[in-house]
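fyi for ur records
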Amino acid sequence: MESRKVQQRTNKRPIGEINGEDDVDKVYKFKILLPNGTSLGMTFRDPQPEMPMQELIHAVKMEYLRILRQSGSLLKPKRDIMWDGGGLYLEENASGNKIRSRFCFKNFKPHKCHLLTLHDGSGTMSKTFQVVVNLSCYLFVLIVNIDEDRISIFDTGPGMDSSDENSLVKWYDVELLVEIYKLKMKRLDIFQLQCKLKDIYFPYIQCDEVSKTGKTMTPIEFQVNGVNLAEVEGGEVATTNLHSCNGPDFVLQLRFYLNQSNAASNSQGVGAYKEANARLKCVYFPVVEGKENIERILENLEDEGCGIAESYETFSRVSIRRLGRLLPDARWALLPFMELTKKKAQILKRIKRCCFRVKCFIETDAGFKPTTSKNDLALHHHFTAALKNFGNKPSEKEKDILIDIDRDGRRLDLLQLEKEYQDWIFKMHDWYDEEVDCGEDPPVLVVSPNKMKLAISSDVVRVHQVIRRKGTLWKSGQKIKILKGACAGCHKNNVYAILEYILLEGFQGDAGGDAQLICRPLGLPNENGCDLSVTNGNANLDIRGSFLLPISVIDSGKCLAIEAAEWDHQLERQRQKAPSSIDVLNAKYCEELEIDGALPVGAPVYAGHVPPKDIVAVVRPACFTSSSGSKNLDQKYIIKDNLDMSIEVKYKANTKDRHGDHHIYSERITPSSHKGFCGLYIFPVGSKFPNIFQKAGAYTFSFSLKESSVKKCEKRVLVKGSSKVGRWELLSDEQSPQYKIRVGACFPPFCIGCYDIYDNHIPFKYMPQVIVKLNLNGAMLAFVEKMSVNLSSNKMSLIVKDLLIESSELDTIQPSYEATLAKLASSSYRPNTADDHGYVDLSGLLKVTAGYGESVSLSVISDNKVVFKKEFQTERRLLRTASRVPEFCIAGSQLKDIVFEIVNAEGDVDETIHDGDKYGQSHTLTIKAESLDTDDSVRYIFRHGRCMVPAIPLPQKEGNFFFVATHSHHPEIHLRFKVSVGQAPKLEHDYIGSQCSDGKYLLLPDTSASKNLGNLVESFMNHEKELVRIGLRIGNCEKTLEVLNDKLAAIEQDMSEKKASLELGPSNPLDYNFQKDLMIKQIESKGDSAAAVVCNLDGQIPLTEPQILFKEDIFGLVALLGAVRTSKLSRILAEYLGEDQMLAVVCRSYAAADALEKYEQNGNVDRGHALYSLATALGKSINGRFLVMCLEDIRPYMGDFIDNDPQRKLALPSPTSPTGEIPLGFLGYAVNMIDIHHLGIMTSAGNGLRETLFYRLFGDLQVYETREHMKQARACIKHGAVSLDGGIARGDGVIYLGCCEPEICFPVITLESQIHMSPESMETLKQIEENELELRTTRAEIARVTKIYQKAMKKYKKRKDQYEKFLDQKERHEYDEFGDQREPSIKGCYLLEYRPNMENNSKISPS
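which gave:
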């Protein structure tokens, strides 16, 4: 690339003369680069067709010398020009042609500036040129020439952004020639380039707004390959301007500035500009002859070869220029003030179509900050955010930005702006829109129609039955299909309807009238459709249940005529989906919803039955039958329409009584959703009436829909009396009847009824024993023994007759002879009679009261003689300790964590010994000791046969300590203990120890030992303390390993049982784990990488303590922390992230990441530590860099989550087009299409993988079905998108082309496996994954503790050898001093011994 600077020359015509009368002359303009580094401009008016070269060079020389004299010292040529040499010739820069003899003007176009270079034969040419200035005139010229291998750009002035720093020319008096060689690009379409450059610099090329004469101004002459862009007919800007209406534009002047009160505090964050200005010009593009002018713009651009990937709906309604230069990527939708969404529905429907016919052209100044590429405004900038939100309430980011709004010199507020903009919209619509002029049949004129229902503004409408549109006839009665997304109200599904009428506003020939289609939807009866009636010459139009469509749906091709077969098919589909019946969900479905809501309708229940907390009803479609219902709830068999359902509960005491209904409860509710199911009617009957089923009788539950033909649903619950007897009562109309009985006569017969605890009359279960007594003032006079007692045939009453009272105490009731027949009651004895086979059923009547391991017997006595006896032996239970109780302890210490077990005769733990209500009694342990004042009220609870006592205090005095552990309710289950308690050793420097012959105990004698071995005593003390310390550490490790190994075995057993419970078929729910294992093998095959090492962290290799510490905070690799539903989605997401991010290591925090790598003093990676040392142990190495992502340091997603979603998906708003519609083919956001199987991984703030890791990776990345869908949705894509067929687009205009097959992908959960998985299996699979995570953690902990244990044992053996060596030395010293007179004395000595737990040692290796 070369850069040439030239002194300016300004002998060009003033700007105002370019389009004046002198344009009739042929004017040839040339810019000539001279060999001494200067340049000048030459203009020739009406020259001869040819000119000799000598004459032309002489003219150039004279002009150069004249200006050289005038400029004085300003012009400094680098050398002299060889004017008299014979090598003078001109070269045309654009074509490279050399002109030596004659100069032909016909080879150059007039009124254009051409670039020439003068060569003087010296062979040297300056690369920079000064400009020879003539101040009489000045005009900027920009010339671009494009060849196959070179681009040259010549600029005569400062840049078009008014910034010398950012322009091609850094200094005012310097021109620039830039030439680019060796191009590596495909062949350019010059016309498209000319159109694009004209769009970008349009105000500089031809300006229509600043000329007072009304003429088009051309401030800059911009040439591309010799063509002045002002003469190019094409480009989006010129085509758009051509199709705008001739009416007044809506122009606003906006001034953005900072609130002065907050400017000081925010000055550091707002940049250099604290004020910005923008000019908004809204232009109306009407519909003409039934076609939108914006559609004409798109068609014209397509025909010119300059088509854009936008439709009428997605066409950019806002374009932005900064300092006159178009920002091509700033293609915004309507600004908020242009949408007018706060209007009433009837006004909004009418005005919405008009709003989409407006485009806003925005001119901004330097106060608005552009992006680095200068193709868009910086969206994060405060003024950009305020402009994009103009018309809405300011956001938090814009609260310090104030906006002044001016229109035609008047200051407006937002309310005034909204009103004036709406008035302007209506005015443009009334003046310029031409929907349809007339129909094909005579219209019916309707005067003063209902404007609100028809969403019109005209006082007159014409109603047609036939219309021609795009060459096709549309007739009343025609069956049509409106495609999804055609207009408002058709967003989700296709709409089927019958065309009834065509409605045209105003009289024929009037402008501005809308055209609408009146349609009757599928399924709406004819009598409820639109009605057009004429009475006494006055027409009336009532739309009733029909709806209106804009006629533009026909123009867009989204309204189609259909055949009768398709119509009938849709009718049948609608009938199948229509509400048909009401169904009350049974117990199985309610259990699936986790609702206590099943009515007991299958069989009678007994009084006191607990009612369901909620009753759930649904509306079933016609396609639902009892046989079509699946094992699980299915949403397709549940109507989701918003219908009101009522419930009424009635009670009838006697099922045969037709007039005994009593109202209990009624309510009307709307449907709700629960556990992902919609259309559920949940009635809280049991919550409001918990005792509803206490009275015996029939309960009727009636369900009905309001204003619906769906048949009422009735469910009947039959309640019988309780089996629990409450009382007996005399069956009489009188509460206390009086009888007059003669002495010696019998009582009249009377009946007794039995009532349950809820006061329901119930039958007698058996013939009871009846006792009757006669009382007087509370004192018994006599027992009544003579009577006849029988049960009625239905056993509902006990009949007592022939009752005769015999007593010698009747005189005591003189003179009234009144007494009370005492309340009748049954005795507590229930006779057990033999059945037909001679057996007596004693089940539930006998209870063993003896304890465990005792003898019991059953005896049958008749006439005081034992006729039968059977002896039994109760089961034996023993109490034992699961942890070792030491035989010797230090006084004042404690026995800690003693575990007791109750076992059966085979030695197995009896897990039924469990303290709780389920097992019917309390199971606790007490500790009693004679020598200590223990509290007998302290109880230690048994859990599944085991009980742990945290601490048992030992006495302060030495001696034997006895204590007993006893079951609190079964004293036969007990265990006695004896512990020897001694004082801790007190050593002086002159004390010395000795060793017993068995080598197990260290004997510490009293002060009678020799006092001349002080140095040995000190050494002995050090050895003894160190051995005690190491022994304690070993003991703690053994206990910890025992607990961890038990935990590991329990987890593995639990996992094995859960895996066995899953129904595994060809597409089993463990496909994910299988695919995950395959992906791990694929990663391991990558060779020397950090990812391959991380995959081995769960292996069986031993880890060092630092390795274990950093392993605990590593969660895995990105590729293994999630799964997707399809292989296509897996491939495209993996390709989007790239292999480096797919293999990124995910850890908890920065500290964990920092522990993965250590460095040497020179800054190089220390390959002997951290993750690199583990790689060495695996026989691998780590080459190159690798990514690490720290969850705690990732900024999480701060929005809401989808309600009741077990995966905690993010509640991201769906993308919408400018018309408010969701783009076709949109499948969702990538961050929500990841299935996370490690929901337990959380940050300290409670954030999971989705809102941290995957939101950091994908953000708002959208997923579409195809590339074509993604292209159509470009206006809705802000942060990138992918398609399942391989399309990838990132933000800021970056797209990926070509194809790739990534090796590392996300595991795929096949749809088959998900379909065949029940909710129980899904929950089990989730628990298995949680177990796997816990299993890895436990194994890592075992490995860590094992390492500590092995290290301690090694140190213990070393100290023990030193200690034995010390004892040998001591013995030799004593022998030398005392000879054979020594007698080892054990009295008064203290015994120290460590016994390794060999049982635990067998479990220390990690499994």
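The first helix runs from residue 53 to 71. thats all i got for now
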